[in-house]
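Field: COMPLEX_INPUT
Field: COMPONENT_COUNT = two
Field: RESIDUE_TOTAL = 570
Field: MODE = joint
Values follow.
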Amino acid sequence: MKEQDEQSEKMSLERDFFSAYDQYAKSIYRHVYLRVNNRHLAEDLVSETFLKSWNYLVEGKKIGKMKSFLYRVANNLIVDYYRQKPREALPMEEEILEIPEKSASLGEKLDEKISMESVMKNLNLLPENLRDMLVYKYVDELSVPEISRITGKSAVNVYVSIHRALKALKNLMLK
Amino acid sequence: MKNKEIKKYLKSLKNVAPDKDFLSRTRDNLSLKIKQSPAFVIKGVGLRHYNQRSLKLIFANTKMIPLFLIFALVAGGGGTAYASQDSLPGETLYAVKLATEDVRLAIASVNSEKQAGIRIELAQKRVEEIQKVLAESGQKELAAKQEEALSRALDNFNSQLDKISAKAAEMKLKEEFQKAVKLNVDLAVASDIFKDVLAGIEGKSAEKINKKIEKSIERALKAKEDSENEEEEINDEEYKVVDIEGLKKNAQRWIDLAVEEIKAAETAVSKNIARLEESKLNEFSKKIEEAKKDLNEAIAFFGGGNFREAFNKAMDARKTAAKTELRVRIAPKGIIKKDEDWKIKTGDDNSATSTSATGTTEIKNKKEKSNGKSKKIETENENSEENENNSESED
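Field: COMPLEX_OUTPUT
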């Protein structure tokens, strides 16, 4: 009986887990990729993020907000990775940029692609901590309290960093 | 520029997307891992801690290996993994097969050349699987699940080619030129074969799959052309070295590599003797002899101090041997084409002059620039011949 209860609990956990995967995998991938700028590394880190989250769940630990939890795990993995290995400059992978379907004409698609490439290029020139803030805020669309929880920084610190990052990016894009 | 505009640009980055194959493959792998694990991992001090510590010892020298891949290897299911190797897209064990492939790739990640070689094998496997599924289904319509699985297999094929190309580009950036050349040669040869096989099965399925096959053919053709161009570019750079010491060093290096490539080709032939028809064996043996002849000439030139010619001949020997080795290993029975396939690209003027009395060397580049003269996909007659051969090979 106990085994049956455990099995059905596991199945329910599995359902919720995969529902979270379907909902957040793409965003987590996007976030990780924009921070590490390497597709293969991003894939590895995303796989590990979800596996660690699953392991956390089956140990009976509770996760309040899955979205923040996943971002936090991904963030920690990125930090750990760069602790072990210094950053390398890698070429930007253009193919990863999907042109939104709503761009009607070829001209619009081209403009969008150029804008995306330009902003990515300049984003990569920013110091890591500033770049991360912009990704959290404007790409992942996380709130300041959420960013504060994920990064462990105070809300004031997050606000100031975002403001500085925007200014720095603006200066780069004007050049 | 206003902040509003900057924010709009940042939001456009929401369109960054992963490889289509990655999301579904990772989901399958996670699902597999979860199914293999007991209902709950030991709580508190548990299996997770034990595995992480012992796995760190086992894999101490490896680079980042995703933990779920390590579990798939270590946690068990060895019998299942073995049984899965013949599974096809849409079958129950196919996800296991893909998971074991990921483990192989992860373990090989410390050696980029080995990993790239595995990727070429995996691309070949995908092509063979697709061939088999379509051959088995005959004229019958595929089930939606099977069609979806085929579609993902094609995505996986494209993804393997993308990753090999990326690895070759990375090697070139890191100035690992010899490795980059080898990889480009391998990719060019493999892609040439793949596109031919895919062309043979195009049109035999539902429209959605046919369109994807067409895209995969284009991808293979592009991989072939790009890798040939890359190889040429790298070789041209090495070729331009003019100081004697540099030339000598390059020529020596190429001779050493030619020796290795020829050995590898001979090993490949002896390992595949049972699988190949006699005519093919003779063809491959002939190519190996050609490579040896070029190598001997390279060594003779080197001994005589003519390092440019030595470099040239060693390059020819390498290419012939490398192409032979790969064709023996991966080509399906009956797909090998005739002599025109083997021609090393030549320039308009094939002549080579020896070093002039003044010491300046003007040996012309023997390779033809890529100018849209890439191989066309076979005519219908050749396709039907290939199809017949394919059916034979599947018996």
